[in-house]
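ok posting inputs for the zinc ion job
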Amino acid sequence: MNPIDKLSQYFKEFPGIGERQAKRFVYFLLHKNPGYVKELGDSILSIKDLIHQCPSCFLFFQGDRDELCSVCRDIKTDKTSLLIIEKDADYENIKRSKNYSGMYFILGGLAPIVTKETPSFLRLKELLSTIETRAKNTNLKEVIIALSLNPQGEHTDMYLREKMSPLQEKYKFKIVSLGRGLSTGTELEYSDSDTIKNALLNRQ
Ligand SMILES: [Zn+2]
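and the output
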């Protein structure tokens, strides 16, 4: 395959990138100076070595493999509260709203409505084990479900409540949903800081 086509095949796999944009990226790089392209190549190569996923909350962070991320380690983090979000971009958004100081958990996706089976991308087992550890060690008081307000998000909300209920019985923490402050159809990823702040304040 010719190198231009080969590289554009890679770009095509990026989220939201089509054939034409992929080609534009390749030509953009061809017009750039070699130093820029080398630095880009190096940072792509090193990202997997420098960035790892936290084994407790699954956030990506700069640090060693198997180490906890800075949010989980920080003594200022409120360890009695755990907020469940779908993906990394949601974390950025909630952090920006500056209204939440607890811990996070990245679920990895939403539960499909059609099947009863838990899909492999959904970190249900990991979530339950993080909750249990937190309930035992840090007096977990509240789990906040912060998923998008669409049918699949609401389905996942109910699904998680059901799966967490044995642990809730045992450790007596509260489960709330962020949904009330957001309007129907809202994607957390595209909500502004004020909307998220309100939703956090009005959680129930
Ligand atoms: Zn963490």
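notes: The helical segments are 3-12, 19-31, 34-50, 70-73, 88-96, 124-137, 151-171, 193-201. The first helix runs from residue 3 to 12.
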